[in-house]
Structure formats: C-alpha cells, structure tokens
Design a protein that fits this description.
There is one protein chain. By secondary structure, the chain is mostly helical. The chain has a domain at 275-498. It contains 23 helices and 4 strands. The strands form 2 sheets. It has a two-stranded antiparallel sheet with strand order 1-2. Strands 3-4 form a two-stranded antiparallel sheet. Strand 3 (514-516) and strand 4 form a beta hairpin. The two termini are 43 Å apart. Residues 508-525 have low confidence and may be disordered.
Length: 525
Amino acid sequence: MDFSSTIATQLNAGTILPEGIVIVTLMVILVGDLILGRSFSRGLPYVAMAGLLAAIVALYLQWDTPDPNSFLGAFSSDNLSIIFRVIVALSTLVTIPMSIRYVQQSGTSLAEFIGILLTATLGGMFLSGANELVMVFISLEMLSISSYLMTGYMKRDPRSNEAALKYLLIGASSSAIFLYGVSLLYGLSGGETNLNAIATAITDASGSQSLGLAISLVFVIAGIAFKISAVPFHQWTPDVYEGSPTPVVAFLSVGSKAAGFALAIRLLVTAFAPVTEQWHFIFTALAIFSMILGNVVALAQTSMKRMLAYSSIAQAGFVMIGLIAGTDAGYASMIFYLLIYLFMNLGAFTCVILFSLRTGTDQISEYAGLYQKDPLLTLCLSICLLSLGGIPPLAGFFGKIYLFWAGWQAGIYGLVLLALVTTVISIYYYIRVVKMMVVKEPHEMSEAVQNYPEIRWNIPGMRPLQVGLIVSVIATSIAGILSNPLFTLANDSVTSTPILQSTFLTQELPQKPIKVSVLNTSFND
C-alpha cells in the first residue's frame, strides 16, 4: 500500500487533467462520428469547443498548484506552462468555428479535421510543460505530424498537396537536427534526460565539454527556429501558408508558434544556462534577420495569405526581443504579446476565410472597394490589421510597448531601435490593405467585389464564423484597455515559476568562470 501510494504521489497524474479532458473529447468525436455518422456532424464542433473550454477551466483551477511536477519530473504544470497551454487551447477554440464552413464547402470530413486539430493541440499543450527530453521530442513530433496532415487535408487541391510535401520534408529535416542536438545534450550530461538534472550536470562539467555544448546549442536552436518561423529557417512558411487550408494556417501561426516559444524558454534557461550569452547572441541575429526580411518582403506580396505569412515571421522577431532580454519583464511581455497576437491574427485570418468563401480569391488587389459591399468585414479586418501594425489604442500597440520597454531596460538598445523602424515599415503594408478596402471609389471596385454575393449568415457553418470573428475583434479592441491586468497575469506566471527565478538568481551570484574555448569567451554559469 505504501509502495502504490508513493508511485501515485510521484506520478501526480492530476496535473494533466486538462490534457485528459482534450483526449476524452477527441475520443468522443472519433467514436461518435464512427457510430452516428452524418447525424453527429452538426453538433461535433460544439462538443470539441466544450471540451476545450473545460480544459481551460481545469488549467485555471491548477494556477499556483503546490506540487506542479508529475510523472517523475517529466512534466511540469507550473504557472508558465499553464499560461502557454491556455494560449494553445484558446487558439484551437477560436480556430474551430472558422473551420466549419470552410471544411464543409471543400467536401472533406469535418470530424477527421477536428480530430487531427485536437491531436495537434495535445502536442502543443504537452510541449509547453515538457521537462524531459523524451517527452519534449514526442510532444514536438505529435504537434508536427498533425500539422503536416492538416496542411495536406484538402486532398483535391494541388497547392495543399505541394504545401504538405514541402512542410513534411523541411520539418523532418529540422526534427532530425533538433534530435541530434538533444542527443548531444544527453551525452554531455552523463545520460540524464530531465532538464533540471541536465542543468546541474552541465553546470558542473569541465571546460573540455564546451565544444559539444556549443554544437548542441546550435542544433537545438535550429530546431526551435523552424517551429517559430525565424529567418533563415522560415523557407517553409510562405508556401505552406499560401497552399494550406486557411484555418490550418491560423492555428500554425498562433498555437504552434506559442508552443515553440514555450519550448525555447524551458530548454534554454535550464539546460543551456552555462551558455546564456551565446544563445542570446544567436537569437539576436535571428531576431534582426526576421524583423528585416519579414517586413521588407511583405511589402511586395500580392496574396493576402503570403503577406500574413511574412508578417508572422516579423512578429516572431518582435517576440524574440523578450526572450533575449532574459528578465521577468522580458518573459512576461512575450506571454502578453502572444496572448493578444492570438486574437488579432486569428481575427485577420477569419476575415480572409470569409472573403475567400464569398469570392474564391485571396489576392490583395481583389479587396478594392470592399467597404461598399461588406462594411462589417471591412471594419473587422481593418481593426485586426491595424492592431498587428501596432496602431494605438489597439492591443498590438500595448504589446509592442511592453516588449520594446523590456528590451530597452535590458540594454539591447540597437535591437529595440531596429524593431521600431521595422514596425513603421509594417504599418505601410497593413494600411495599404485598409486603404484599398475603404478609399476606392465605386467605379474602382475589383471584379470580385463587383460580383460580391448577397451576405447570408443563415448558411450552415456561417454563424459560428461570424461569432468567432466578432469575439476576436472585440478581444483585439478591449485587450488594449485591459493591458494592465493581462500583463500582471503574465508577470505572475513568470515570477512564480521556479526555473526562471533560479536562473535569475544564478546569473546574479558570483560564480567561477567557465572557459569556452570554441567561442573564445568566458562567462558566468
């Protein structure tokens, strides 16, 4: 009896109750579709959304849990993981309403699509709290493989097939690179897989292992950079965004990216704490390239989805400022920005879905004069794009303010100034779309807008799309007003997370310097 109670205590399986709820929801959807067939399809999305809401409530109830570690330390349900898991679950919750009509109109199975989407959600949620190398890799592959399947879900569309093949080939290569990096980490730590144990072993290691640690760092960052679409590991992003079903792109741009940043924080501040200066330098380079290339190339795009693809690359560069700052304010500003980015980006993609369902195109030039035929869509898309550009008083403005201020306080002045310049560039291509929709005279309407169909919300699947759009726009509008409580929540998740606070403490204490011969520098562990 004592043995079993000890095992139960060490497993502490209650910490994955939210993931358990999502698994049960997934099984209900698959079995229900198998048994009931078409009669179940109408209520199927609402079952998925109810399960995700229940998972978010379960995550809320786990806030400040006294014993966050479970499965012998392989998973951590600390506040940092809770808030990232909420972001991943919320991104799926908003994606489902926008996908109902889109998937039904394509003639494919909605149950299978939602099943794969929930599987990707599970991968992202487990990745956000993974504290052990095996769990990190399995969660990462669970998210990645589900993403490949969703990308090629429209089997009759050649562009979707091409996007899935490119994503699969590049993604498999990045997974192999990442796995090689963590295998080096496993060897250097003397066979440890738990991140905290690796951190202890690497800290105690001699300088002779510094070459292996540096190689491991480069390979691991390459894998993470692929997941967050950072330059130069962004090659898949424009093609996959353009060819994939739009709801899939919406999830990848928020849920997958948030899970990637959660992995970056958890892995880099623990296992790679001895080379903090080095990974800060690498991420500074990635942020610079991402902000410049993402914003400059977006100027030349003619497809709305490709423009948003390069925009997401640039947004990843902005978020990296908080990671590079490496302070409480830096990590909190990352979380806050990802929270509001969720709504403004998904709102923009919802507008793109609505326009493409009605016109069959996503070309920017075809939006000309849209205000004359669809004022609601024009208003919603304008608010989301202006928020992405950082126009006050919308949420994106406050998100950028917090990020840039955290970077300025951390002393990375050059990066913050570059971010300000590239933000001005981004405003141009966002406002270009708004101007095209609003300012055009009636005789300058595009052909797609001239033939714009009558707006009918009573078509099956359109009402959830309308509700999802309105919720996203309202959240984007009022998140700026509520920025202080939201940032306080993000800050609490950082200050109450032991791994981040122990890292700050280690950096402040005087330590014996470790020589890193390959980089020809010395720094504190």
